[in-house]
Design brief:
11 strands, single chain, Yope Regulator, Chain: A, 2 domains, 8 helices, about 350 residues, alpha+beta
Length: about 350
């Protein structure tokens, strides 16, 4: 593994195909105990279980799920929804969501998605993993403080913890977490695959780099304002910005016309379905002067730089996936899409 402290190691490295073996080596190098299975890696911790896997749906992604060990009681569902929505609105890193368990309680999870079609360097994998585990730990701490009785905030009995670890390792694949028990995902399209890039080393990224990709795609936009590039895609407002020189964020916005008092929970549940099902998307509800806006965004860590192909792939894939999510959400909420798709 390269050193995070060496600029020469960060910039100039050539991305390579992402495999679970490389991810496992990165996690081990970060000090985690990794349990390996054929199609996933499991990292047990005190408060949650992390599961790393490769999503071959388009776009190809490295995914890491973080599943809380202790469920939250159903009676606090509305409060829990607001807590998760606020986290997704205010924080970067993995996306939080919940699902109703057979027991009637809520299983709370987080999911990280890292674009992998053009490969990743060892440093990029380590940076994404460390950032994700740090955010997952902070989220878990706040969740437990806010929703668990103090006597529950302690390690589980060893037998129960081992049973959970075994289920994570050998049980249902995490890509099917959003499906009912016994359900299986349909293969809607051919699996995505890694595309090797010749001589495309990682370079520092700033807002100008993002603009270069938008220029390549023939987008028009005004000069950046307050550190963001704004434009419209198929009638949906977009913002592209660099956050704290650490993340590139692509955000799509839709003004729902719903009031906060009436519309929050239906909108939140629609967002939660998106967050449960997909990899690398974050959908949340934002109150604006009493009305509700819906945002869908993607995030990419840039501390280790990006190759040109990585940058192009992230932005293009983000546009496709966020437009698809706004289409699904607006259709679900109001019966018609807010996206102005081209007519053929």
């Amino acid at each position: 593994m390269g050193s995070h402290n060496s600029p020469a190691a960060r910039f100039g490295a050539q991305p390579e195909e992402v495999t679970l073996a490389r991810v496992g080596a990165a996690l081990t190098g970060l000090g985690f105990d990794v349990i390996e299975a054929g199609d996933r890696l499991v990292v047990p911790t005190y408060a949650f279980i992390a599961t790393a896997w490769i999503s071959y749906d388009r776009p190809l992604m490295l995914a890491i799920d973080f599943t809380e060990r202790i469920p939250i009681e159903f009676e606090r569902s509305h409060e829990l929804a607001r807590f998760i929505n606020r986290w997704n609105l205010e924080k970067v890193g993995p996306t939080a969501s919940y699902r109703l368990m057979d027991s009637g309680d809520f299983q709370v999870s987080m999911r990280l998605g890292v674009h992998a079609k053009c490969g990743l360097t060892d440093e990029q994998i380590m940076a994404e993993a460390m950032d994700a585990f740090q955010h997952a730990a902070a989220f878990s701490t706040q969740l437990r403080e806010g929703f668990l009785p103090i006597e529950f905030d302690q390690p589980l009995p060893p037998a129960l913890a081992r049973a959970q670890d075994t289920e994570a390792l050998l049980g249902r694949h995490p890509s099917e977490r959003h499906l009912p028990r016994g359900g299986h995902a349909d293969a809607a399209c051919a699996p995505d695959a890694f595309e090797a890039q010749a001589d495309d080393p990682c370079e520092p990224i700033d807002l100008g780099s993002v603009g270069d990709t938008l220029d390549m795609l023939d987008f028009s936009y005004p000069p950046p304002d307050q550190g963001a590039i704004t434009t419209s895609v198929n009638g949906i407002p977009y913002a592209f910005y660099v956050d704290a020189e650490t993340y590139v964020r692509v955000a799509a916005m839709w003004e729902t016309g719903c009031s906060f008092d009436v519309g929050f929970l239906p909108l939140w549940l629609a967002c939660n379905d998106i967050n449960e099902q997909f990899v690398g998307l974050r959908a949340y509800v934002l109150e604006d002067a009493g009305d509700l806006d819906l945002h869908v965004e993607t995030t990419c860590i840039i501390t280790e730089g990006l190759g040109a192909a990585q940058r192009h792939n992230f932005i293009i894939s983000s546009l496709v996936s966020t437009l698809g999510a706004v289409d699904a959400l607006s259709t679900d909420v109001r019966g018609t899409t807010a996206v102005q798709w081209p007519r053929h």
